[in-house]
Amino acid sequence: MHFVGVDLAWGTRNPSGVAVLDDAGALCHASAVRTDDEIFAAVRAAAPADCVVGIDAPLIVRNAKGSRPAERALGRDFAAYEAGAHPTNTGNAAFTDGTRGGRIAERLDLDMDPESRRRRRAVEVYPHPATVALFRLGQSLKYKNKPGRSVDQLQGELLTLIRLLESLETAKPVLRLKQSEHWQRLVEIVAQATRKAQLRQAEDPIDAVICAYVALLAHRDPDRLTTYGDFATGYIVTPTLPADLRPSRQSPKQQSRAAVVSAARREYAVQFPRIERAADDAVELIAGVLDDAGLNYLTVDGRAKTVASFAEKAAREVDGEPLYVDPMREIGDTIGVRVITYVRRDVDAVVQLLGAETEVLDDRDLGVETASEGRFGYASRHLQVRIHDEDRAEHPELADRLIQVQIRTVLQHAWAEFEHDIRYKGSIPAQQRPDFDRRFTLAAGLLELADDEFSTIRDKLRSGVAGAVPSGLGADRISSRELAAYLAGQYADAAWSRADHYAWMAGLVHELGIESLAQLAEMLRTVDSDEIDERMAYRTPPGAVRRLDDALLYRFGAEYVALEGNAHRVERLESRLAKLRGESV
C-alpha cells in the first residue's frame, strides 16, 4: 500500500506537488509538476498498485453559488485558526464542467467516496487545518506568499513546517522524511532560498507530503479524522481539531502575544538542526563522562525539543499572563538527556559525577519531593547543567546551552513511562480515576521496595566476592565474568562498572599479555594505589574498571596507550598519563 499526496493547482499554469509514502510511512517520491498527464505519470510510477490518495483540491462541487456545506462546516471549527476553506461553486469557471481533482481521480481509477474501503481510493484533504490539528497550532502557519510577507518570514514559517513534519518520525503512524533524498533536496531549497520564487519550488511538494500523511491516517487511523460534508455535496477530510485547543489570535493583546510566539517558533525552527547536533553532543559528552569514571548504567539517550513542543510551551500562560516573555531565551529544556541506572545508589553516583564535571544550575529530587508529601509516585532526579568554559572549545555546539538531565533507575523509568502513557495519552473514565490513582500509588510503593531489594542484592554480591583470591588456572585469557569478580575484591569500595566495560578491559589485559588472574594480581602488587589516588585527585569515587584502567596506565605508560583497544581515546589517556607522572597538563 502506498499513500499519495497531491497539492493540486486549479489550473495548469501553476505547479502542483506530488508526494508518495511507502507502506512504512517513508517518503519515496516528491516533485512539482503541471499537467494532468505529468500527475498521472508520477503517481502511476511511484504507486502502481494499491494506494490512498489525498488531494488538496475540490473533488465534488454541485452547488451553484456560495460555499459547499463542507466548507461552511469546516470554517465553523477552523476559521478562528485562520484555516478556513475557500468557497467553491459551479459558478466558478474552474468547476463548470466538473473538477480537476475528480477527473484525475477517475483517470487513476480511485473511488472518491470518503466511506469507501477500496484498495484504490481518493479523499479530499486540506493542509492548513490538518497542520493546526496535528501540531496543536493556535493559528495556521503563514508560509504562503501574500502581500506584506517578507522572504525571511515565509522562509521561517516554511522551516517551521518542515521541522513539525520531521517530528512525526516519533508519531503513530510514523512519517519518515529525513532519510529521503527527495526531502533533503526540499529542505536545502528552503534553507538556502533568498527569493520567494525559490521558496515556491518547495512549497507545493511539502504541502503534498501533508496530504499524503492525511491519506495514511485515513487508512491506518480513521478515528482521528473528521469528515466535513458528504459524498453527495462534497466533503473535506482532516485530522480532528483537539477539543482543548484554542485559537491564538483574538483580542489585540492576544494577537501581539501570538506574534511573539510565532517569531520565537520561527527562530527555533531555523536553529533546530544545530540544536539537534547539540543534543547528540550532550549525549556523547555525558556518556563519555560516565564511561571515563567507570560507572555502571543501563542507557544514556537524549533529544532536542521538537518545534511543536517548543511552540506549545512558548504559548503557555498563568492567570492570563505569558509564562515566557522571551521564549527563545527563557525556555531551558530544549536539550534533554536521560540516564537510566540499575539501582538508586547509582543515581546518586551519577549526580555526584556530573556535579564535578559540569556546572549544575539546578538540582531537583522529585522522589524526595513526592515523599515529603507523604505519598508514593514519580521519582526522578532532574539536573540543569551546562559545560565548563574550558570544555567549550571541544564541544562548540553546546557552548552556553542548558542541558536538562533526568536520572532514574530502570524501575522508576518503567513506572513513569507506563503512568504517562496511560494517564496522559490514554482515556481514563472519570469514575475510575480514584481506583487508577490508588493502583498507580501501590505500584510506585512496590517498585520502591524492589529498588531497595536490588540494592541490597548487589551489596551482598559485592561483599561475597570481596575476599576472592585469584585462581591459578592456566586459561589463556581472563573472561569478563572472572575479571568482574576479581575487581570486586581488589577494589571493594569501588562501584560496579558496565558489563561491556569489563569485557573491553579483559581485552586490554589480554593485549598486554596477562593471561591469568594470578598474573594480574602479581602485576598490581607493583602498583602504588595511594600514589595513583593522590595524583588523579578523583573528584568522585571511580568505578572498578576505571581503577584498573589507571593502574595499568600507571604501570605500562605509553605501551598501554598504544594498545589497539585504546585507539579511540589516545588523547584522554595521554592527558591522564601526564597527571599520573606529575606533569602539568
From TrEMBL:
Protein name: GTP pyrophosphokinase
Species this chain originates from: Flexivirga endophytica
Family annotation (SUPFAM superfamilies): Nucleotidyltransferase
One family name in Pfam for this protein: DUF429
GO biological process, one term: guanosine tetraphosphate metabolic process
Domain RelA/SpoT: 302-430
